[in-house]
Amino acid sequence: MPSSGESAPSIAPPVGAIPSGGSPSGIERPIPNDSAFEKECRQHHLRGSMPQDAEFSVPFPFQANPHLTAARERNLDWVRDLGAVSGDEAAGRYLSSHVADLAAYFYPGISAEDLPLAYDLMGWFFLFDDEFIVPAGEHPAAAVADCKEMILRTLGTPVRTPQDTTPIVAAFTDVWTRMNHGMSPLWRARAAHALLSYFWGNLTEVADRHSGTHRTPEEYLDLRRKSVGVDVSLAAGERLGHFEVPTLAWSSSLLTHMVRITTDHIILVNEVVSLDKEEASGDPNLILCRMRDQNLSRKQAINQTIEEADTAVQRFLDHERQIPALCSNLALSSSERTAVHAYTDMMRTMIRGNHDWHRTAGRYSSQAQPLVPPTLLTGPANHGEQNHGDLQEHASPRQPT
To answer: In terms of Cα–Cα distance, which of 400, 313, 312 is closest to 361?
Structure first.
């Protein structure tokens, strides 16, 4: 429910969304319909190409956080204060991309106090991704330098360098510090491991892209599992929900497989929806990879990817039915069982939320432009005091979740 004095947000299920289904907890969070939002979704649906309108079977309920309006406004102030977004045109582009709104879909049940951290995390994810956008023939040296510095900060051994003043590093440092607050050393170790995998995955993508490395569809998907950041988002969900999965349960093959399925579904939906944009810009995409390596038509490759995603959901449900037995076999306490169920519910929500967000996100239009220009991202974090000018047009090499 909205906090005192806060009105319900303007959000509704995307046009063509799968009707709500049940959840293990039996809790659904209905969000008021809004004609303006529905109209926006309908316009996306009517003018969008087949990939963004592709139908997936996701039998989980639509949910969105009721506090998103205030969090969206605060997040815009945050990226502006850090110097990551400057000027009205840049701010408009950032908002129209809907990137930070993914937080409202991923974490529909967290409080108004916790949602800003989720928004800032998602904003940082996408701003960092767009830092790799450079003119043709150039290397993303600034992005690589920032990535190296953030690796050191993740390990807890930051090195004082000029990189301390870049907006991306400043944003990460703020988010990572807030994420750690109140969490156990074991959670911090897990979250750090997830971040390191994410950073190294991004560096591998840069190295492969600029060295002309050819990856098979299987190799492509394996690398995307690292660079998509789902493990980081799941760890963040524990912090935002104020719980921690018991160590043995988190380490079990069952939860590991469910995390893998969740990650794969998020990637597969992204690969379909982002196809038009990446096809237009000549960037890597799993569907294009399958067309090339498996001699498939565009439609065949899309259908194969959708079928794979739908099968993943059924596998997820099969695994989910084993959760009660896992909790019993590990002799978990009542509070520990609640944490495990909260974790698996979060995976359900992320699968559905990712699907719903992708269907209307302005980021995946073939005409979409990066959030900020490279010249801005390599500059100092000046708290918005310096005018860096408007956005520039460059093609994005890849899209995260």
So the answer is: 400
